[in-house]
Amino acid sequence: MPRVTSSEHYRRHRFLQMLWREPGLDRLFSLLDTPAQWQLHDYYQPDQDLDEVEFNQLRRAVDRKDPARRHVVGRHFRLLEESFVAASRAFGADQDQMQSAIAAATVAKQPPGVRRFRQSETSHRKVQITTIAEPLDTRKVARGFLSLAEYQMTHSLGEEARKSPEL
Fold first, then answer.
1. Kindly report the CA angle at 114 between 108 and 116, in degrees rounded to 5?
2. In which element (H, E) is residue 88 found?
3. Rounded CA gap, 60 and 43, in Å?
4. Do 13 and 45 meet the contact criterion of CB atoms below 8 Å apart?
5. Computed over its alpha carbons, how large is the radius of gyration of the chain?
6. What residues does each domain of the chain span?
7. Is the dihedral of CA 131, 103, 50, 1 positive or negative?
8. Mean pLDDT by 10 residues, the chain (167 residues)
9. Which is it for the CA torsion 77, 79, 82, 84, positive or negative?
10. At what angle do helices 69-91 and 95-105 cross, to 10 degrees?
11. Measured between alpha carbons, how far is 95 from 25 in angstroms, rounded to an integer?
């Protein structure tokens, strides 16, 4: 497999940015499980407006921390890109048909060995739930944990004060 250049990484960033921002195309992210989506967001930053120099600086910092990450997110990226390309080839440039193809591509497949129950004649709806993960905001997560710790501290101290000391 050829080495991925910095300009190719930036092209991937821009491609994922287009998928992320275009209504309906963001459904392709649901082909990946939530941790995989977070890895992709962390590495390629599709929610950020970055020029090539800024993007490559951030990417190199991630590479220094976790050299194997680029290979993992490369597989995630290929899945999204191949799904997009397949939908594009099948339906050309017609946006509505592409949306239908993407919706069909993101439908969960039935695992082998799982028995499908018959639907009643009145039930024609199928429900599917998928996730499209937002990038993790570590500051918000940290603030949430701090607030939880403060809440637990104040409430546990309040309970101890209400208990009367036994003599």
1. 80
2. helix 69-91
3. 9
4. yes
5. 23
6. 6-108
7. positive
8. 83 91 86 91 92 93 92 93 82 62 52 49 58 76 85 73 57
9. negative
10. 130
11. 10
